[in-house]
Design a protein that fits this description.
Elements (H helix, E strand, L loop, with lengths): L19 H20 L4 H29 L5 H40 L41 H24 L3 H32 L7 H34 L8 H26 L1
Helix pairs in contact: 1-2, 3-6, 3-7, 4-5, 4-7, 5-6, 6-7
Length: 293
């Protein structure tokens, strides 16, 4: 398993037995139990959900801390580094398919479902239905039977465009930080990492303000027909991914300040950077397909 000369990196590191996986599973159990019961009207489900969330996050903290200590102790060889790279690649691929499903739902609703409901065969069922996507024709809420309250659609100006500039800028600052780390300029790397984290926080703040404005001034809600549901599902899940990516970069920055990583060995940094650039690319597609079209 780790038969090697003293002081050399093992060919393949096998960690000791750990309780982290089963303890994390317990936290997930209480989260799912709480969410299912709370949404069905049982008050105690809220406490189960919060308990499971706190438990799960605590376990992840200690789990990741142990992995970081093992890495800094020189226990991870090229084989481990390669396995981490493949794992992160497949994880990002699963996220691509995740967003692909929602983009497909948006396309299907806009190009097939809404036109079909406006066809001659549905005229008797929905005589006043406007078979047009709300962002194309002002005031067209596509609401059969008036079951959806009137709402306004949102365009690219100005908050979405500001957020696009913020995310693209954060990609640049992250790339500068990466090159600084490769050049063994830790101070410059840390400065630009903090800039990236701050830009991510500002993005989330702007999106939160946008949501408040849309909800109060535009009456655009999650139940505002298929337009509202696809809008909030896409932008909301992307916002959650920005939060996760920002937390990744935050903890990577803390580790950099502690002296972790070198100019040659820093996949923890690279993995977080891969994820952040993926989030940037998804937003570009979202910005065009949701706000412009």
């Amino acid at each position: 398993m780790s038969a090697t000369h003293k002081g050399a990196t093992p060919y393949y590191y096998v960690p000791a037995e750990s309780s982290h996986p089963v303890m994390a599973a317990i936290g997930l159990f209480f989260m799912i139990l709480g969410a299912g019961t709370w949404i069905n009207g049982h008050e105690w489900g809220m406490y189960s959900l919060y308990f499971g969330l706190i438990w799960w996050l605590s376990i992840l903290f200690f789990w990741f801390r142990d992995a970081a200590r093992e890495s800094e102790a020189g226990l991870y060889s090229r084989k481990i580094d390669l396995s981490y790279r493949w794992s992160m690649s497949w994880f990002i691929f699963s996220e691509v398919m995740f967003f692909g499903a929602f983009f497909t739902a948006l396309w299907w609703a806009r190009s097939h479902s809404v036109p079909t409901l406006g066809s001659l065969s549905h005229e008797l069922l929905w005589p006043n239905f406007q078979a047009v996507w709300p962002s194309v024709a002002a005031g067209a809420t596509a609401s059969p039977g008036n079951i959806v309250e009137p709402f306004k659609t949102v365009g690219p100006f100005w908050l979405p465009t500001i957020n696009t500039a913020l995310l693209l800028t954060s990609g640049v600052t992250l790339t500068i930080a990466h090159h600084a780390l490769q050049a063994n300029n830790r101070a410059r790397c840390i400065r630009f990492m903090w800039m990236t984290v701050i830009l991510g926080c500002i993005f989330l703040g702007v999106q939160a303000y946008e949501y408040y404005h849309l909800y109060t001034a535009y009456n655009l809600k999650l139940n505002s027909g298929v337009f509202g549901s696809t809008f909030y599902m896409l932008t909301g899940f992307h916002g959650f991914h920005v939060l996760v990516g920002m937390l990744m970069l935050f903890f990577i920055t803390i580790r950099l300040m502690k002296g972790d990583f070198t100019d040659k060995h820093h996949f923890g940094f690279e993995g977080a950077a891969w994820y952040w650039h993926f989030v940037d690319v998804v937003w570009v597609f979202l910005y065009i397909l949701v706000y412009w079209m």
